[in-house]
Design a protein that fits this description.
CATH architecture of the largest domain: 3-Layer(aba) Sandwich
Order of helices and strands: EEEEEEHEEHEHEHEHEEEHEEHEEE
Strand content: 25-35%
Structural class: alpha/beta
CATH class of the largest domain: Alpha Beta
Shape: globular
Helix content: 10-25%
Radius of gyration: 22 Å
CATH superfamily of the largest domain: Nucleotide-binding domain of ferredoxin-NADP reductase (FNR) module
Number of strands: 19
Number of helices: 7
CATH topology of the largest domain: Rossmann fold
Length: about 375
């Protein structure tokens, strides 16, 4: 049995059996799902992607997104999950579902992905905060398996060592991969023997990392390791992502090479808006959603389209409001907009008229949108 559920887009769900469940720390656990032969194609995925899980919590249906820690070559779906509070929905998932039980799991999605380049020499740096390690782990396992020339650096922040998830697995990867993977742990609420590793991962810490860890490059005496960085991966809370993404950008990494994934709703822009637009008042907006036609008028174009529609109580789909998750993707059928930032859409999709409503400013008096992509 399978179901189609609307989560901004139409998402296909299938019943999967829990094959393994493991408590990792006092507030995190893992789930592994059994994928039957007839669904192997449906659950092919790229490193860094996630699935949505539908379950009952406190008498209500809940759909939560969880990143996979498994790599594609492992041919299984493994999730790392954090229990936010004893009263939360995820606690119900941990307490009420066990090996052998079935859950509705969506087909994999998400664009926190990288193009594999097995023949190139690459340097990839990742920053993770807490449960944000999950998609990074998927990436690193996949890269170590498929890219023999790529070297990896992981900077992993947690409050305390007792909350550090997947430490044994990470340390084993570092031991077995020679000098291709280096991992550094940071703690914000636990004193460390070396003061360098005490504190949050932020702009100041990045400066120290660049100058004290990513400085001498054995492969090129005339440059630093930081100079050789090809891609940056960041996963964690919004403020951490904003701080580190901007710091990496100011230290010379192009925005297109800085990839991030949020683990909570975040309503602020990741990068500051550097453009100014002519004021347009009384902007007419027509949009289609779930087969229904809507019409409204925005006071002006000083705020982004999605945010103004939400103020007017329209049930438009969104998750992050930061141009990352893609929930508010729609097609611009009439008018013009300025897409301020885009971590989600491909160049092809942009040419086809796709926009992210949360990152779009109206540039014409009238615009027409279609949220029904399928």
């Amino acid at each position: 049995m399978e179901q189609q559920i609307y989560k901004g887009k139409l998402v296909q769900f299938h019943w999967l059996k829990i094959a393994k469940k493991e408590e990792l720390t006092k507030n995190t656990f893992s789930l592994e799902f059994e994928i039957p032969g007839n669904l192997q194609e449906n659950f092919k995925f790229e490193a860094g992607q996630f699935v949505s899980v539908k379950f009952q919590a406190h008498g209500k249906e809940v759909i939560n997104d969880y990143s996979m820690t498994s790599a594609p070559y492992e041919k299984k779906i493994c999730l790392g999950i954090k229990v936010g509070s004893p009263e939360g929905a995820t606690a119900e998932l941990f307490n009420n579902y066990n090996v052998g039980d079935e859950l509705l799991v969506s087909e994999p999605s998400g664009r926190f992905t990288l193009v594999s380049k097995p023949s190139e020499f690459r340097t990839i740096v990742a920053f993770a905060g807490g449960i944000g390690i999950t998609p990074i782990l998927s990436h690193f396992k996949n890269i170590l398996h498929n890219e023999p020339r790529t070297r990896l650096f992981l900077f992993f922040g947690n409050k305390r060592s007792e909350e550090l998830i997947y430490r044994e697995l990470l340390d084993n990867l570092a031991r077995t991969c020679g000098n291709r993977l280096q991992i550094f742990y940071f703690f914000s609420q636990e004193k460390t023997a070396d003061q360098f590793f005490y504190g949050r991962l932020d702009e100041k810490k990045l400066n120290l990392i660049i100058n004290q860890i990513l400085h001498l490059d054995d492969t090129d005496e005339e440059s630093t390791i930081w100079d050789a960085v090809d891609e940056v991966l960041i996963c964690g809370k919004g403020e951490m992502i904003k701080t580190l993404a901007n710091a990496c950008y100011h230290h010379g990494i192009p925005k297109k090479n800085i990839h991030f994934e949020l683990f909570e709703e975040y309503n602020n822009d990741i990068y500051p808006i550097e453009k100014e637009f002519p004021l347009i008042e009384n902007v007419e907006v027509d949009f289609k959603m779930l087969g229904k036609e809507y019409h409204t008028e925005l006071p002006d174009n000083t705020e982004k389209i999605l945010q103004q529609l939400l103020v007017q109580k329209f049930p438009v789909p969104y998750s992050c409001k930061s141009g990352i998750c893609g929930s508010c993707e729609c097609i611009l059928e009439e008018g013009e907009v300025e897409l301020l930032e885009n971590e989600y859409l491909t160049e092809k999709e942009e040419k086809q008229g796709h926009i992210l409503a949360c990152m779009s400013i109206a540039k014409t008096k009238k615009i027409k949108l279609n949220f029904d992509l399928i």
